[in-house]
Amino acid sequence: MPSEGARILVIDDEKQIRRMLKVALEGNGYDVAEAATGHDGLNQAAIFHPDLIVLDLGLPDMDGIEVIKRLREWTGTPVIILSVREHEDDKVDALDAGADDYVTKPFSMGELLARLRAALRHVAKTDDEPVLTFGELTIDLARRNVILRGEEIKLTPTEYEILKYLALQAGRVITHRQLLHAIWGPNYQEQTHYLRIYIGQLRHKIETDPSQPTYIITEPGVGYRLVIRD
Amino acid sequence: MKTITDKASEQNGNMQRGFFLSRVPLGHYVWALFAVIIVTIIGKILTPFFNLTNLALLYLLPVLISAVRWGRGSSFFAAFLGVLAFDFLFVPPVFSLTVNDARDFFVFAVYLVVALVTGTMATKLRDELEKAKQREKRTLALYALSQQIAAETDLRQILKTIVKTVSETINGQVSILVPDLDNGVLHEAASYPPQNTLPDDKEQAVAHWVLEHGQSAGKGTEILREASELIFPVKAEDKTLAVLAIKLNTGEQAASLEQRRLIEAFTNLAAVAIIRVKLAEEAEQVKWLAESEKLHRALLNSISHDLRTPLASITGAATSLLTEGNVYTQGAKEVFLHTIKEEAQRMNRYIANLLDMVRLESGILKPKTEWCDIQDIIGVVLRATKEILQGRLIRVNIPSDLPLVKADFTLIEQVIINLLENGVKYSPSDSEISISARYHDKTLLVIVADPGSAIPKMEQERVFDKFYRLHATKHISGTGLGLSICKGIIEAHGGSIWVDSSPEYGNRFIFSLPVSEQPPDSQADTKEGEGNAV
Q1: Statement to judge: residues A115 and A142 lie in one domain
Q2: Inter-chain residue contact A193 with B375, CB threshold 8 Å
Q3: Domain count, chain A
Q4: Among A57, A49, A44, A50, which Cα is nearest to A95's?
Q5: CATH fourth-level superfamily of B366-514
Q6: What share of chain B is helix, strand, coil (3-state, %, to 5)?
Q7: ipTM of this model?
Q8: pTM of whole model > 0.95?
Q9: pLDDT digits (tens, 9 = 90+) for A72-118
Q10: Nearest CA in chain A to B398
């Protein structure tokens, strides 16, 4: 179910993309405003009060990352990045600068809509949900236990913390840096091999086939995402 | 005056010989004396048979012998001694230096002139011979050097050999300076004996003057003679390619004409060698250009064909959908829509490959290595290729105890995707494809196997070439880029990729990645149950 009437601001310099997004998003019940430049986008963000912003990183007048930084000075409105594959690093920088998620161009509309829903849901979500459920996986935050298909599984403290962190932001991509910072602290932000090892262990415990994970998926070069099943 | 000449002949060693051989040992004069004595004895014996004038001729013999054997000094000595002995022992009155007949003075004068002229000429002849010998020696040195550098193709090595030979032949500090192609600043290409100090501004200035004017300058020349070095141009035709700077070990002394001629001969040799190496480099460049032109042509062909084909499908499907009226059934419309989607995705993959190839080709694509779990990469690949695989059976066999490997996650992902796509494309649609990984001897091997028809041995290496398509499968659409990109990426990681084919099992594409190190301690907490204990 799309959030009825949610307001979305699309900032992209390509007229074709804006037109297509406007038609598709309005068709899905969203209220859409458009901006072609970074400056116009920042103005619109203040006037239109969007619930969510779709931002293209390659803008003619200013760096997309700069737009995010300026937005984050005064608003926590979720931002979804549109980027081409060639700018992997920019994508990570944008996420670390405060963007909530990204979609790589060319993208399927289904994918973009799923990201929009996840980001909007996250804003609406209240913090006091003690039990999180993802298909056959249940995490009871109050009891600190994890149940898979009715059976409790044993996790190490680090594995549990990782799973909990991903689950609390389910559906959103978490960058390596964010995850390392959250679990190990600011001095471990470059130690990606910790993540490779612990995510590997975690998958062996919760996934049916660790080679084809269905809960924790890897976003190449960016980070991890715990999948929401709609 | 004399001492300076002495010093010069001493310093220049065998290169130069002073005309007045003051350094000649006393022995030479003793020998001259001895020769005169012998001739005197013979003269005494022959006195009854010859007249006086004839006997005087005998005294030319020791002069000639001295001139040829011991040089001009001793020949003059022999001449005067001869006059004295003749006068004293033969010319009446005997045993007296007085001369009765005035005509005898005429004999003395003629004798002396003949003796001195003969002595001088004989000495000259002797010096010429010496010089010829020296020349031969130098020619041999030049020849030996040219032989040494003829086979060498490394310019640096050639220059090293040249400065070493010049330094040893003329006894001095020798360096060769080559102008930078971009800004023309001279820098030292070789020097012997090796020196650490850079040329100072003054030396640089002289060297630049030489480079510009193509004439030698510095110490002992007409130009900039106050410099401490002597600098020669290394010229080929009108162009000065480099300069040769020489500081003689003899300190104050300037180089002799002979030395300078020799050095010029060496610089000519150096010029020939430099030109030869440059021509070889240019030939290499031309070859490279031809190859890159071939590549560009293939690239253009590929772009025009492989981009237009999906575009044609997309345009056809979209225009059909836009047709007025209800011509098409709902089912047909669905087909058009799927065509548009699939062809657009194909174009996207093609563009990605094309970009990767151009990046590899231009050296921009550098692996950003991080610790990777190969199982994780394969998981991402299977997710990304779900649509292309269209329900094909993929068997994955990855041991759980594989080590992490330092690699670029997205690039290795790209490699496996390309291999998997190939496997799907070139094998029967109901057959199984397998992906497996192994760790052996510090190497991680990843194998993508398909049961398609085996690649002929002849073509097994060529399939990794850019735009190469197998003859047997040319009818299947493809760009010939995928495998060449795989090869480029794997080699950039220090690994290798090959194919093992057989009619029994089809094709096994295998790539290896070196596992040279292990990640630092990962603070493993393997104690379970604490994290989720109440």
Answers
A1: no
A2: no
A3: 2
A4: A57
A5: Histidine kinase-like ATPase, C-terminal domain (3.30.565.10)
A6: 55, 15, 30
A7: 0.84
A8: no
A9: 999 989 999 998 766 677 888 999 999 999 998 888 898 899 999 88
A10: A211
